[in-house]
């Protein structure tokens, strides 16, 4: 009887195990459709959406605007005599643009500026990242793959004449390569175009430009060409609108991120292979990733892009601020600032060198860490991509099997006997070994040409970057992991420039990586020394980077590299009404003289801003205790390495807050 009970118990355990296996298989088969909504489901669970009408409490210390910058307003309209373009001009400019999203966007802005400078008609440029890929959607081609052509042409009617293609007479001659092609550098001066290119344009009526460096005009122009700088702003921030399918998905993601009235923070890691190779940051990674970075660095040295040695001390470069902040370091900084673990963090950028494993520490600190793939459905992604020709899943076919007759013929032609024994057959190359994007490292010293699948992925990255760009610009706070890398325009710098132009008072962190590297490498936390407490130093630095001092510091470091990363004061004006509300007259004077050449906003902008400020003050009257003006925290920004005595502002900060 005892034995029979054991048998029945064992049979029950087997039945339960079999039932559990069936449940797991069912869940695994259905997880493909539900996985895309897991992030949104977790949002709902954390925030208890639909429970009452209680609005969530939002700390203005973490999400509020910077009051000292509210007087800066976008103003890119012409401010002097600005004649409309004439149809009887010097000719046509036809361009091909190479590079990713950042280089493409910067190059288009420069092309429009050059067309205005040379009094020429601009032909819609070709974006080679999309044209090189075969089989992408026929609905969108080249420029229209990411941008709205009609909006682009209409928005610049008063600046440059833009056409979709060359006239038939010139197009035939262009195909016969009868016209000269130039490859200008991204630091080309206006005099280069007026002296070298303009005579050829007048002679041939059409010229070609090939842009590979992310631009074709120097960032800083003389004061006499300030209107051309404002033209750059009108192109970047008004004319270059994404096509409706991209905007629809991007706005949908913003809506989901702000569900239940919650704010979100956008974070761009900036971990790109080219940037890491340019600055010699190979040793901060491990295994095959180090080899890939070093290979790319060797290519850059051979091409003359880098004038440095191949092997450098990556940790010394990181200490100098040349290498990016790793995701785990950004998580530590955000926790030190006081962002709770349930904060919604959106990871932007189509390329994350090192894969998802580098985000594991940040995901452990912030459970609501999401990106494009986890916040959208498959159908929404397909709507952006459009109908495409499928690519063969197995492009690596084994060699054909020889027949017995062919083998005998080869054996007879092999030469006199005795022959050496044939070599043993090589180990077969398995599928998972060949499809890896870095699988060539173990087989060859040369990187293979991109496959059709790789070319299509490069085209898709333009779409993902466009969506992430909109989500990052609309974010309540933005934190760059790497910007101003010097190797060309980068995603974070473009986003920061757009946010400064559109709403300078938005919370855009501008961290000094060199100073933060010193703090992160510091092994001593002076708990009882208020002026040297680690948490207080981090908060003081990041709060100061939000303010006017942070903008001025970024101005001195990035203006000479990229105009679109810092489009003020040329494309902004200052409303004087806001200054009257500040209690400190000395601070008002500093705000008024932030940059040389600042203009006062027109009277109609003053009235609009005054009405908006009145409504905002009435709406935030009840929670004024949360207001914070980070501009008062920037007194130690320039001398942040000195050990100063505690200030009143420091005493108000609780390191455990």
From TrEMBL:
Q: What is its main location?
A: membrane
**What are the Pro residues biased-composition ranges?**
417-426
State any single GO MF term: glycosyltransferase activity
UniProt keywords, alphabetically:
Carbohydrate metabolism, Fucose metabolism, Glycoprotein, Glycosyltransferase, Membrane, Signal-anchor, Transferase, Transmembrane, Transmembrane helix
Q: Which residues are listed as membrane-spanning?
A: none
* Protein's pathway: Glycan metabolism
Outline the segment boundaries, as ranges, of region: Disordered. Answer: 393-426, 614-657
Q: Where is the composition biased (Acidic residues)?
A: 619-628, 648-657
* Membrane topology, as annotated: Single-pass type II membrane protein
One BP annotation, GO: fucose metabolic process
Can you tell which superkingdom this protein's organism belongs to? Eukaryota
**Record localization:** Membrane
> Which family, according to UniProt?
Belongs to the glycosyltransferase GT106 family.
What is the recorded name of this protein?
O-fucosyltransferase family protein
Origin organism of this chain?
A: Heracleum sosnowskyi
């Amino acid at each position: 009887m005892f034995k029979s009970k054991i048998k029945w118990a064992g049979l029950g355990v087997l039945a339960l195990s079999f039932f559990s296996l069936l449940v797991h298989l069912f869940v695994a088969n259905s997880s493909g459709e539900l996985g895309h909504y897991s992030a949104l489901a977790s949002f709902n669970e954390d925030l208890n959406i639909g429970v009452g009408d209680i609005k969530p409490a939002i700390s203005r210390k973490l999400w509020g605007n910077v009051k000292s910058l509210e007087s800066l307003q976008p103003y890119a309209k012409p401010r002097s005599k600005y004649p409309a373009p004439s149809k009887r001009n010097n000719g046509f400019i036809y361009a091909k643009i190479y590079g990713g999203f950042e280089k493409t966007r910067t190059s288009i802005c420069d092309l429009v500026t050059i067309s205005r400078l040379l009094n020429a008609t601009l032909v819609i440029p070709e974006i080679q990242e999309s044209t090189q890929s075969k089989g992408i959607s026929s609905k969108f081609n080249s420029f229209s793959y990411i941008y709205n052509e009609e909006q682009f042409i209409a928005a610049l009617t008063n600046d440059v004449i833009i056409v979709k293609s060359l006239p038939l007479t010139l197009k035939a001659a262009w195909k016969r390569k009868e016209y000269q092609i130039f490859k200008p550098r991204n630091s080309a001066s206006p005099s280069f175009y007026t002296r070298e290119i303009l005579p050829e344009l007048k002679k041939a009526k059409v010229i070609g430009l090939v842009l590979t460096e992310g631009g074709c005009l120097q960032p800083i122009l003389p004061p006499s060409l300030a209107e051309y700088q404002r033209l750059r702003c009108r192109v970047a921030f008004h004319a270059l609108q994404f096509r409706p399918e991209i905007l629809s998905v991007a706005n949908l993601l913003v809506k989901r991120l702000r569900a239940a009235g919650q704010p979100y923070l956008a974070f761009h890691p900036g971990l790109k292979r080219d940037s890491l190779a340019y600055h010699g940051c190979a040793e901060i990674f491990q295994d095959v990733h180090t080899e890939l970075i070093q290979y790319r660095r060797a290519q850059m040295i051979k091409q003359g892009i880098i004038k440095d040695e191949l092997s450098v001390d990556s940790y010394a470069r990181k200490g100098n601020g040349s290498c990016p902040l790793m995701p785990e370091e950004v998580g530590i900084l955000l926790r030190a600032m006081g962002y709770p673990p349930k904060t919604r963090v959106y990871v932007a950028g189509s390329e994350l060198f090192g894969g998802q494993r580098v985000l594991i520490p940040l995901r452990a600190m912030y459970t609501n860490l999401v990106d494009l793939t986890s916040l959208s459905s498959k159908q929404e992604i397909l709507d952006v991509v459009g109908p495409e020709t499928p690519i063969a899943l197995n492009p690596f076919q084994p060699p054909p099997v020889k027949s017995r007759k062919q083998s005998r013929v080869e054996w007879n032609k092999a030469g006199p006997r005795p022959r050496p024994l044939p070599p043993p057959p090589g180990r077969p190359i398995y599928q998972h070994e060949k499809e890896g994007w870095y699988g060539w490292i173990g087989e060859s010293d040369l990187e293979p040409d991109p496959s059709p699948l790789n070319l299509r992925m490069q085209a898709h990255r333009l779409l993902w970057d466009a969506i992430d760009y909109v989500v990052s610009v609309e974010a309540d706070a933005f934190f760059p992991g790497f910007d101003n890398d010097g190797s060309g325009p980068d995603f974070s710098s473009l986003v920061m420039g757009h946010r400064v132009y559109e709403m300078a008072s938005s919370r855009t962190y501008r961290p000094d990586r060199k100073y933060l590297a010193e703090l992160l490498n510091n092994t001593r936390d002076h708990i009882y020394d208020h002026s040297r407490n680690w948490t207080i130093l981090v908060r003081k630095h990041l709060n100061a980077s939000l303010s006017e001092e942070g903008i001025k510091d970024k101005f001195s470091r990035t203006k000479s590299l990229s105009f679109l990363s810092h489009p003020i004061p040329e494309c902004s004006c200052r409303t004087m009404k806001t200054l009257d509300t500040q209690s400190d007259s000395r601070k008002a004077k500093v705000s008024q003289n932030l940059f040389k050449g600042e203009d006062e906003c027109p009277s109609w902008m003053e009235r609009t801003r005054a009405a908006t400020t009145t409504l905002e003050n009435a709406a935030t009257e009840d929670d004024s205790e949360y207001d914070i003006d980070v501009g008062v925290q920037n007194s130690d920004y320039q001398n942040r390495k000195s050990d100063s005595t505690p200030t009143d502002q420091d005493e108000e900060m609780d390191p455990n807050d």
